[in-house]
Amino acid sequence: MSEFQERFIREPECKHITGLSRATRHRMQKKDDFPKPIKLNGRISVWQLSKVNKWLIENSQKGIVS
Questions:
Q1: Of 28, 36, 44, 55, which has fewest CB within 10 angstroms of its CB?
Q2: Does residue 3 belong to any structural domain of this protein?
Q3: pTM
């Protein structure tokens, strides 16, 4: 039996996957419209890929993401 292992992505990959700039994602995070990052060592921001993918699916259905 295999266990699900969460994958984390950093800024460049998050930008590539979503097509959103850092500033746009930050504005959206403040309004709870985009998953918030997790801070590692207080400095490194990472996103859970599963949450970003879920956001992409939900927002592509709404027509927000092309």
A1: 44
A2: no
A3: 0.83
DSSP assignment of the chain equals -PPP---EE-HHHHHHHH---HHHHHHHHHTTSSPPPEEETTTEEEEEHHHHHHHHHHHHHHTS--
- Per the prediction, the chain carries an average pLDDT of 91
Domain assignment of residue 54, yes or no: yes
Determine contact, residues 54/62, Cβ cutoff 8 Å. Answer: no
User: What integer pLDDT is reported at residue 55 of this predicted model?
Assistant: 95
Domain count, the chain: 1
Establish if 39 belongs to a structural domain.
yes
